[in-house]
Amino acid sequence: MPTEIPSKYRNSLESFQNTARRLFDIDISEAQLKQFAIFTDLLLEWNERINLTAITELDEIMVKHFLDSLIFCKWLDRSSFKENIVLADLGTGAGFPGIPLKIIFPQMKIVLIDSLNKRINFLNIVKKELCLENLETHHARAEDIGRDINFRQTFDIVVARAVAELAVLLEYCSPLLKVGGHLLAAKGQNPEAEVTSSQRALAELNCKLEMIEKYSLAENADKRSLIIISKTGNTPQKYPRQAGKPKKKPL
User: Fold this and answer.
1) If I label 172, which of 14, 78, 112, 202 is the partner at 20 to 30 A Cα–Cα?
2) At residue 2, does pLDDT exceed 70?
3) Is the CB of residue 98 less than 8 Å from the CB of residue 113?
């Protein structure tokens, strides 16, 4: 790990650090800021090879990737947070929100799940370069990993950003959750229609809407939403359905 943050990143990272403190009451240490700098470097380097993200401007990365990932920290801080908590990031893509959450909560076990192996290869490099312990990566479709006995009903929390409509996301995520666990889904500023159309999925999958939180990452920016859903009972064995069906025919 470099001893100093590259000067080309310093101003943007310090602005990110200050905003995280103001919005989320998160104090990001110098060591953690260095990890974010390395992550930025790797993201931009690998993006030229495998198209990880359309967001490549430095300040946009800080807001739309890093800060937007940290919104989950607000809920984690006030939940029954324990060091032995196990969190899954389903459809992690380039590692959001999982890698930023791992930097902020180094003691938390996090499992990054994605259906594209090239992204998993990138995340394994990030894990090594950032010296992240207790972090796993898995190449799998949501419909398949939800039926795997090694993962089914084993997670305290599942997080997701921009993966699918809520009814589909519930079928992907709820099989992974323990009873009493929570799904945290980041959505746009008006998620109410998605919530309304997900009532059957909530009932069928033994889940309950707990709350919807609205937030904004910058002045004059569109609001974002965090949907918190609890799992109240076991997932019926028939879910998730085979690959492609949840999206083609949502509950």
Assistant:
1) 78
2) no
3) no
